[in-house]
Design goal:
184 residues, alpha/beta, Rossmann fold, six-stranded mixed β-sheet, three-stranded antiparallel β-sheet, globular, binds 1-O-pyrophosphono-5-O-phosphono-alpha-D-ribofuranose, binds hypoxanthine, PRTase_dom
């Protein structure tokens, strides 16, 4: 019996189905960019930081960079869920380098699942003195859970299954897929 992390990556494609095509994802990213652009114009901020939550947020952040017609600086952080015995702790391995004081910070991530990660990153940005904090996720999982926050902008709602592609991984693989798939 092969452990899941040792499966060849092609196996995950064979054991999954497309839930959003590349075309549907691209259309969603266009909508996210337009909504963010509008929100930031309303805030009339000239100090914008696009903050990518690594690694999953990389795909959406890269796509947004090409679409946001605003002066923005880019930074990133890494804060991962650690499913230890004491519950669901967040372990930070990289904090942003830019000074977030008085900035309009746009946090970009791939998925809002239980919402623990995004809530922690929002809390961090406020504590660091951000003036406005906006959140954008490519996907939100429709899992019926009471979440600690809602994202300001959501691209697509995905079913309550394990999804991957467009930044999201399955055992480290397939973040680069331009479509979103769900394990069967
Ligand atoms: O809403 P939550 O239940 O908190 O889960 C969402 C988070 O989980 C994933 O990150 P992960 O820690 O797996 O790291 P990754 O970005 O490197 O995949 C994903 O990228 C989100 O950041
Ligand atoms: O369904 C998921 N897929 C990939 N990464 C995730 N992180 C939380 N939920 C998921």
């Amino acid at each position: 019996m092969v452990a899941p992390q040792d499966q060849p990556p092609a196996q995950w494609l064979a054991q999954s189905q497309v839930v959003f095509t590349a075309q549907a994802v691209n259309a969603a990213i266009e909508r996210v960019a337009l909504q963010l652009q509008q929100r930031m114009q309303d805030l009339a901020s000239e100090s914008i930081v696009l903050l990518c939550v690594m690694r999953g947020g990389l795909y959406l952040a890269g796509q947004l960079m090409a679409r946001l017609n605003l002066p923005a600086r880019i930074d990133y952080l890494q804060a991962n869920r650690y499913h230890g015995t004491a519950g669901h702790e967040i372990v930070w391995s990289k904090q942003p380098e830019l000074d977030l004081r008085d900035q309009t910070v746009v946090i970009v991530d791939d998925i809002l699942d239980e919402g623990i990660t995004l809530a922690e990153v929002v809390r961090f940005c406020h504590a660091a003195g951000a003036r406005h904090v906006l959140t954008a996720v490519l996907t939100e999982k429709d899992n019926g859970l009471q979440k600690p926050l809602q994202a300001d902008v959501v691209g697509l709602v995905v079913p309550n299954r394990y999804v991957f592609g467009c930044g999201m991984d399955v055992y480290g693989w397939w973040r680069n897929l331009p479509e979103i798939r769900a394990l069967i």
